[in-house]
Design brief:
eight-stranded antiparallel sheet, alpha+beta, single chain, 5 helices
Length: 269
């Protein structure tokens, strides 16, 4: 039966090191993405958030103009505006903007939704810019063992397990060798023996698949998990579901296969 690790009831670190050890070796740093690429991503992200304010105003003005014209053209009742009432209540203003009808509320809400959608779509693509180029670049700088490989983001949970021999968050290649998972990342190389993993592979999707789909592996006899975000072919963060399914299927077949005998086992590192 699996042991649930509770920090509140047991002051000692989670027992993630029981059984065959997980080997974590610090390397590098050997950046997957160039410094220029990372600076450009940070700058574009900053510009996107700065653009949020003007976008709200532009969308708000556009929607209010269109709704105002439709109200006049079709003779709709202007009704009352909750937003205008709040402005009068707390701002003491009586300019024409505060006398608008329901179209002001709809325009304001539509502007916020439209701005959120624009920022989401931009950041969704921004997260994967240069992804395939980075893979090719990294392959020229690292030696990988034979076996199926996947380009992934790796992290461990819960957070406190990092002090007990678990890897830190990193990006790199995951290789399925016969007897272990081998991960070569920007800052570390990790070897997780196959018999340290429980027979459990799950694919965790976000609501509406708006963000990445993560594959989760559990360490046998503990509550510690290894999370993998596969990003082999995805052009957007929200499009990682197919890569995640391929990774889950490969891990499932890998766990179901018989362990090699000792004479056939060749572990990386």
């Amino acid at each position: 039966m699996a042991t649930t690790v509770s920090k509140a009831s047991d002051p000692s670190p989670p027992a993630v090191l029981s059984g065959p050890p997980i080997r974590v070796r610090t390397v590098g740093p050997r950046p997957i993405f160039s410094g220029r690429h990372q600076a450009a991503i940070h700058l574009m992200t900053l510009l996107l958030f700065i653009a949020g304010g003007p976008l709200v105003w532009i969308f708000g003005f556009t929607f209010r103009t269109l709704l105002g014209a439709a109200t006049l053209a079709f003779g709709w009742d202007r009704g009352g505006s909750l937003l205008a009432a709040l402005v009068r209540r707390f701002g003491g203003q009586t300019d024409p903007a505060t006398t608008a009808g329901w179209s002001l509320d709809v325009a304001a809400l539509s502007a916020l939704v439209a701005t959120w959608c624009c920022l989401y779509l931009a950041l969704d693509h921004l997260a994967m810019i240069g992804n395939r180029k980075a893979q090719r670049r990294f392959l020229t700088r690292v030696e990988l063992p034979d076996g199926p490989r996947f380009f992934v983001e790796l992290r461990a949970s819960p957070r406190e397990t990092r002090d007990a021999g678990m890897p830190a968050p990193d990006v790199g290649f995951l290789v399925l060798t016969p007897d272990a998972l081998f991960f070569a990342g920007e800052r570390q190389e990790v070897l997780i023996p196959r018999n340290r993993l429980a027979d459990e592979v799950t694919l965790r999707r976000s609501p509406g698949d708006l963000t990445g789909a993560h594959v989760r592996l559990r360490l046998a006899g503990t509550s510690a998990h290894v999370w993998l975000l596969a990003r082999d072919q995805a052009a957007r963060l929200s499009a990682t579901l197919q890569d995640g399914r391929r990774l889950r299927a490969a891990l499932r077949a890998w766990l179901d296969a018989p362990l090699p005998t000792e004479k056939d086992t060749v572990s990386p590192g």
